[in-house]
Structures are given as structure tokens and as C-alpha cells.
Amino acid sequence: MAKMAACVVESGExxxxxxxxxxxxxxxxxxxxxxxxxxxxxxxxxxxxxxLDPSGVSDEETARVGLQPVRDWRAFGLQGYPGxxxxxxxxxxxxxxxxxxxxxxxxxxxxxxxxxxxxxSPSETQDIWDKSVHGLSCPPSRTQSKTLLDRLRWVTLGxxxxxxxxxxxASHYTPFPADLHSLSFQITSACGFPGFNAEAGILNYYxxxxxxxxxxxxxxxxxxxxxxxxxxGKSAIFxxxxxxxxxxxxxxxxxxxxxxxxxxxxxxxxxxxxxxxAAPQGHPALEVSGCGPASSLHDSVVEPLSEQDWAVCSRYxxxxxxxxxxxxxxGPGQSFPETPSSHQRxxxxxxxxDSAKSRKRRSCDCVDTVET
Length: 372
Ligand code: OGA
Ligand code: MN
Known about the structure:
Blueprint: H1 2-5, H2 15-24, E1 47-49, H3 59-64, E2 75-78, E3 84-87, H4 96-106, E4 113-114, H5 128-137, H6 148-151, E5 154-158, H7 178-190, E6 200-206, E7 210-215, E8 227-233, E9 235-240, E10 250-254, E11 259-262, E12 271-277, H8 307-319, E13 321-327, H9 355-363, E14 368-369
Antiparallel strand pairs: 1-2, 2-3, 3-11, 4-5, 5-6, 6-13, 7-12, 7-14, 8-11, 8-13, 9-10, 9-12
Helix pairs in contact: 4-8
Bound molecules: N-oxalylglycine and manganese (II) ion.
């Protein structure tokens, strides 16, 4: 906090908003020296080791979904944030491209829902990948118009989040992807939450100038279950605040492959992504083609990519970031209320206070991109 204290107030009236704007600023660029980087060891006394349960998950089970053995994970907590866990890229070398391809090629497909469906017909938003790859596999030219993949901002899975009402409902559900459920199940088991049921997913697609406003994820009906977040591609600054808007947030980097678990007291904290930043030197967003995962595993979820798929994913993640949040909506034995609940997110909860703008953002594009 030391260096930032001169620039922004530490607490008081909407300290979160001030720090959000501090990190979002382009000119002059902000000082990033207070941002916690979990990929470097021992650089903040706020970082504490996290306790994992390696007995709950076998090495074979983790390898199937492209994860290292749990005993090799570098998992951390943060002083003052009980229930928050940060796992610094637990993926096996060569398995991230598979998950990126799922996010770009598989999950945007029907019956899943995406932002483009809001103003395009189902036939137009079918095969987003196929309609876009030509443009992506040859060098971009000035005259080329944006591909559908370039215009993809969000995808919802399982119980589809309704951005307008900020609710999930029993009637708007399609099967949650089995592979992403397995990945989420292994991670939550290792973190001490056996029996996690992945029921809803929100994928956010960020360009270099995108941000995600200040919010709390409280639409799920059972807050005792953890919320999982996966990051791929470019890095981001993540701000984790408190239960009140005026609590000043802690800034941290999210790099490609990093996983966050928000549970317990940290499940309902304000958070935001003010800025996308370059991946660190020597840590490319996607490892080189050809060092694919061991395909000899029986029943492996992760499979090698074709050269073309890898090239498209590599190019995309060079300029962009994909974030996947996985949520359990209902507790064991719980069901949706008969009538839609009226107790949901309010305007004050979202973004940086500009509620008209944030309503627009939430209703069409979750991730707010400055059009250039
Ligand atoms: C969300 C979210 C954070 C991120 O989708 O609710 O907080 O890192 N995403 O994109
Ligand atoms: Mn969130």
C-alpha cells in the first residue's frame, strides 16, 4: 500500500472505486509495485501457505484433467481473507492449450449462450470458431472486419446467468460440460470441498483494453459452496476487496493457468478486474506446440490439439484473456423457489457506480471493452 497511499485514499468513500481507477489508468501508467505476484516466491508478507488435501485426489485423476499432482501445487492464502485460495498455475505442461480450445471452440457452441445471441440469429452464431479461423490463421490486415471470435465477450454454461434479472432459473438450463465439471471437481476436492457440483459457468473474454467492474457474485442460492476461477492468456490485475464498497482492495496478478478459489468468508467479497497486462517474460500464455499432454492415460479428458487449433489458440491468447468462473448454484437437495426471488444484485453492487452504463454492460457485454 505504501506507494499507492500518496495517490489514492486508503479507505473511506468508495476506496475500491479509486483503486480501480488507479489501475485502469493509461496515462501515465500506474505503479504496479504493490501488486502481489504469486508466481514469484516470498515477495509479500500478506501471502501465506494454503493447506491442501492431497489424499482426496489421486495423481491419475489430476493428470486426466491436465493438472499436476496436488503435492506439487503452489497454493497460497492471503492474510485477512479467510477462505480465499490462489493456486499458481497447477496445469501440466502442454495441457493449457486444450482448455483454451474448449473455451474458444467448444463452449461457445449451442446449446450454450453467448453475447452474440443477444442480437444475432442462432444460425449466425453457430460455428463461431469455423467462421473465424480463416481470419485468425493468416496475418491480420487492416481491411479485415472483426471475426465473431473477436466479438465474443461472454458465454454461459449450465444454469444460464440472466444478466438482466441477475438470476439463474430452473427453466434456463442446458447440461454443464462434463470435462469442466471434472476439472472443477478435482480442484475443489483438493481444496477441502468434496462433492462440488459445477452447475453454472460464466466465461469472460477480455481484449487488452477490457475491464470488469466492481461486483459481488451472490446470485447463486447456496453461498457455502466455493466459486472457482480459471485464467488463460494474457495476465490481469485482480482486485479483492471486502464486504463493503469502502473497504480498500488488495491487488494481485492473475497469470495464464492460475486458479482462484473463493469460499467461506471470501465467497461474497467485492472484486474487479481493472486491467489486462502482458504475460510475464519467459512465461508465455500458451506453451509451444508439440509438448502436448501424455495421451497414453486411460480415459484422459485432455487431448492433444491439431496444429491449426493450436495456432488459433496461440494467436488468440497472445492478445486476449479468457476467464472461466464455475459456480454451484444450489445446495444439496435445494431447488429453485416457485416464484423468482426478488432479492438479487442491486445497482449499487455493480461496476464503478455508473449504474446506467453498468446496466447496459451487464445486459449485453459483461466485459467492458473500450472500442478503439
Ligand atoms: C466473474 C469474475 C473475474 C475475472 O466473472 O464474476 O469476477 O478474473 N471474473 O475475470
Ligand atoms: Mn465475479
